[in-house]
Design goal:
By secondary structure, this protein is of the alpha+beta class. Strand 6 and strand 7 form a beta hairpin. The N terminus is likely disordered.
């Protein structure tokens, strides 16, 4: 594509402690642009993929710990939530190789759980999209569509993100 920057980013460590990934699996080319300069064709930036892990609930997945150096009490993500985040970021990097999508976005996700028990919660999906640099910040999600489904043999999250115009107030 004309105007391709060819910039390569490599990420070796996730922003939460204890999860390191192989840099080769996280290296991708940023070669998509909002406009094809030769043809003058524009498109709405979008991304989609599948996370092959069962989504944990962010609200119900906190654990209480005490910081050893300061003695302060804090709540951190549980091990299932951290495991989901690590797998999610790997899968998102595999599926999306474009630029960070800017501005308001619509997130659609079909979350397949292994049972009926978990609450429907897309918060960790938004965190993973931010960590994988699909979106700059999860505050960009202005329109959220989440569906809970059951697949005991293959829990997963099918997600798609697309840029939307900023909503304006009605007169």
């Amino acid at each position: 594509m004309a105007g391709s920057s060819g910039t390569t980013r490599t990420v070796a460590r996730l922003p939460w402690a204890g999860y390191e990934l192989h840099p080769a699996s996280l290296s991708w080319r940023l070669d998509r642009h909002a406009t094809d300069l030769e043809g003058g064709v524009s498109y709405t930036p979008q991304a989609s993929g599948v996370i092959h892990a069962e989504c944990a609930s962010k609200a119900n997945s906190r654990r209480h710990v005490t910081n050893a150096s300061t003695g302060k009490s804090m709540f951190i993500k549980s091990k299932p939530a951290l495991d989901f985040m690590a797998q999610a970021v790997k899968d998102i990097f595999r599926d999306y190789t474009g630029h960070i999508i800017e501005g308001p976005v619509q997130l659609s996700c079909r979350i397949f759980y292994s049972s009926r028990r978990p609450d429907l919660d897309a918060a960790l999906v938004m965190d993973a999209l931010q960590a994988a640099q699909v979106i700059d910040n999860d505050r960009q999600v202005w329109d959220l569509h989440a569906t809970k489904l059951i697949d005991a043999a293959n829990p997963r999250v099918e997600w798609s993100v697309r840029q939307i115009p900023e909503p304006t107030p009605s007169a």
